[in-house]
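Batch 3, record 17
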Amino acid sequence: MTLKTLAIQIAADFQKHYGRAPRWIVAAPGRVNVIGEHTDYNDGFVLPMAIERYAIMAADAAATPGQVSIYDTHFKESATVDVSAPVTKGQPKWSNYIRGVLAGFQNRGMKIPALDVAFMSTVPLGGGLSSSAALEVCTATLLEAATGKAIDPIEKALIAQKAEHDFAGVPCGIMDQFISALGREGHLLLLDCRTRKTELVPMSDPAVALLVINTNVKHELSGGEYAERRAQCEEAAKNLGVKSLRDVTPDQLEQGKAKLSEVVYRRARHVIGEIERTTHAAEGIRASNWPSVGNLMYASHTSLRDDYEVSCAELDAVVEIAEDIGYQGGVYGCRMTGGGFGGCCVALVKADCVDAITKKIAADYKAKTGFEATIFSSRPAAGATILQQ
Ligand code: GLA
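Prediction for the assembled complex:
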């Protein structure tokens, strides 16, 4: 569904639920990370792009003071948030992403206006495409629209990240919220997570496409494993006497190997290698050197699978199928994307082979795992937008 169609749909849903037309419509995209995995919380580089899948909200000022009502048009479920006092966690669970952002704006001294909101999302839930970041950034964008006060997009991303930490209990890095807030159509975003400096990398060569392959599996261990990986990286940095793994070169890691346990050494090796691969991939994209970018993607997957141990059988199956199709069949590279333990792979492919590759991956994945994959291609989309002010 295009963003325009989505906007029409959410306006109609708002009208149906609240009995009047909405005043504001805002949207924020999900993302796929092309390369730079588990590097953001290590002060490294990431290279994500916003995808044409969105959280979208329609809203109007509400009659009940001190209250924000939110209606989820897909699950037909409502949440009511008291904004006359500091916003706290509550039910239903999904409302915490929104509550966290409302609280973040309160902490900046903003009085939250009473609002009636309808929302929906086309970002697959829990698929590693940042459905939660899209919802958080969408909420922040709605508050900008409703108060008429734009805030710096970097600050917006940070408020959204804090919502994820404090209200959803996920100690995530900064990548997902940044790309949802700052994405630009036709571009990837090279983000230096240490300085928060961003560089737009054009990705508009019509000869190539990015395919997102959702394994449609999610292994439950993901929550605790993520925090554990973060802790192992911090341990590595501490034992090597640096602030973060960003400050360690591959040579320095080898010299300091004795100071690390075998597992922590491998975690650090992934991060340090991945930071290097990410800047090289950005160079490859700038030069339209697709075979080089593809090889870096495969190398990233191997490292995530063997050293960082965040892949799973289904993600590995997709990458193996992509490798079998190979360059001859139009695949440059493929890797798992996002936190891991299920979710999605991203593949860089020749544009005129998209249909054949999609069919082949779907059939072989089903045969290998018994699961149905969901596959789509997306051009790099724009970040959060106010569609109706
Ligand atoms: C999740 C987190 C991000 C990032 C990735 C791994 O998506 O939300 O901050 O750490 O995992 O690269």
